[in-house]
Amino acid sequence: MAESSQRKKVVVVGAGWAGLGATYHLAKQGYDVTLLEAGYYPGGLVAGWRTSGGRAVEAGIHGFWYPYKNIFSLINELGINPFTNWTRSSQYSPAGLEVESPIFQDLPRLPTPLGTFVYTYFKRLPLIDRLSALPLLYAVIDFDNSDEAWRRYDFVTARELFKDFGVSARLYRESFEPMLLVGLFAPGEQCSAAATLGMLYFFILAHQPDFDVVWCRGTIGEKIFRPWVERIEKAGGNLLANKRVTDVIVDSNNQATGVVCGDEVFDADAVIFAVGITGMKKIISSSAHLQSHEQFRNVTNLGAIDVLATRLWFDRKINIPRPSNACFGFDETTGWTFFDLNALHDEYKNEPGTVVEVDFYHANQFIPLENKEIVPIVQRYLAHCIPQFQTAKVIDSSVIRLPQAVTHFTPGSYRYMLPARTCLKNVFMSGDWIINRHGSWSQEKAYVTGLEAANLAISYLGEGNLANILPVEADEPHIQLARTVNRAARYVGKSILPDFWLP
Q1: Bridge partners, residue 101, by sequence
Q2: How far apart are CA 355 and CA 133, in angstroms?
Q3: Mind listing the domains of the chain with CATH numbers?
Q4: What string of pLDDT tens digits covers the 503 residues of the chain?
Q5: How far apart are CA 215 and CA 168, in angstroms?
Q6: Which residues contact residue 478 at a Cβ distance below 8 angstroms, ignoring those fewer than 6 apart?
Q7: Are 335 and 185 in contact (CB under 8 A)?
Q8: Torsions phi, psi for 240 (to 5 deg)
Q9: Closest C-alpha to 403, from 43, 36, 13, 45
């Protein structure tokens, strides 16, 4: 390997899935890679840490779904075993249990979306309401994740989408909006229809097993990121925490030559940003060089959503039928989830009491409250789902406020999102809010865009092998045929009708 002074230098900003993915691959290709993380530890919001009392906490629980091919491939490469088995999940309202999901891959495979429809057990929702979703299949087919499809659906709200396609009010209220509150983290009137269709298709509708999920058997920071960081450092990557980026130095050729962190400057032949919307907006606000480009100024039009992550330790064992649970109907604009950590996390398997993680999304109204106000609310909500929580005593708790923490896919936001390749020749973007055509979402998308950004840097600098990115599973034959016919119909329609007839 060449001396460090002779190797091309790449600076990666942000140490989440995207940043670690880009850094790892570039380090393996022999680049002099420096990863800058504003926080105290690699991993960003999903890493997790320990309290002063030694208890493990994290900024919300994150699942790993069946279609996360690239993350599962990484886990195999690292030679680690951080995951539970596939788990079943439930959904609750204030009235009690509403929905139970099986392990879909264990059941006879039916053409999509029949498997999801047939095998999901709805306790109260009438069949006639479920059938009202059938016309929505046209929108699922019409939305093919292309740029044209995003622009066609992005200005429509999810609420309008479901209403226009005849979804019953009850199905929307008891099924689709709860999915939005824990999938896109906002109520339907605040979510882009394009993002809604993309998210629902990837996680639920593309193939029968897609909703199957495993969980990390501890914090992601300890179980995944720690061994991953060790591998990155062994490959030659340099990870620096507490480095908040304030500017990018750009020369007269429209190329970045360095990244500024306060009084420090890190020279760069290429730069990869791998931060969330809130972090990127902070960097742009302090960078005259980035502000001079409309593409980066437009990022300030994007928004993010507040999250509240709580962890409660109870004095007794409580029977929680399923380890992961989503809840709706407790607050009009807030979704929440709760997890049985005795069943999911190794360190709590022999805990004498019960440990529960409860996460709230679009938690604006909870963020200002004091911990002593939040904990009783959480316990009361849990008791609506499982009555045993009502008489149990909370012996310890953790409350983590995460303002502006996750991407908000608002209607009309697509036009302001950044592509991986920017107007600066050697500055590349990654993260779950970056425009790409892979089709994945959440952690898988963040990791994939990190690999894509690394590939762009390699192509630009002309050294090393490109990362192998696994595609999402191909559409099933009947979906492929329907989309082919639909595209042909749109093409013919556009040739004979004015544009305003075909948005």
Answers
A1: 89
A2: 37
A3: 4-51+218-302+418-461 (3.50.50.60), 89-213+473-501 (no CATH), 303-408 (3.90.660.10)
A4: 445 558 999 999 999 999 999 999 999 999 999 999 998 877 655 666 676 677 777 878 999 999 999 999 999 999 999 999 999 999 999 999 999 999 999 999 999 999 999 999 999 999 999 999 999 999 999 999 999 999 999 999 999 999 999 999 999 999 999 999 999 999 999 999 999 999 999 999 999 999 999 999 999 999 999 999 999 999 999 999 999 999 999 999 999 999 999 999 999 999 999 999 999 999 999 999 999 999 999 999 999 999 999 999 999 999 999 999 999 999 989 999 999 999 999 999 999 999 999 999 999 999 999 999 999 999 999 999 999 999 999 999 999 999 999 999 999 999 999 999 999 999 999 999 999 999 999 999 999 999 999 999 999 999 999 999 999 999 999 999 999 999 999 888 776 655 544 44
A5: 33
A6: 111
A7: yes
A8: -125, 120
A9: 45
Cβ–Cβ under 8 Å, residues 396 and 313: yes
CA nearest neighbour of 320 among 106, 87, 59, 94: 87
The two tokens of residue 123 are 């306790």
> Whole-angstrom Cα distance, residue 309 to residue 374?
11
Peptide bond into 498 cis (omega under 30): no
Q: What is d(CA 175, CA 135) in angstroms, rounded to the nearest whole number?
A: 16
Give CA–CA dist 57/278, Å, rounded.
22
Phi/psi for 360 (5° steps) reads: -115, 135
- Asked whether the beta carbons of 58 and 48 are under 8 A apart, the reply is yes
pTM for this structure?
Answer: 0.95
What residues contact residue 284 under an 8 Å CB cut-off, 6+ apart?
Answer: 290, 291, 296, 297, 299, 300
Instruction: Look at the block and give the residue holding tokens 């079943």.
Output: 88
Instruction: Give phi and psi for 315, each to the nearest 5.
Output: -85, 0
Alpha carbons 163 and 314: distance in angstroms, whole number: 42
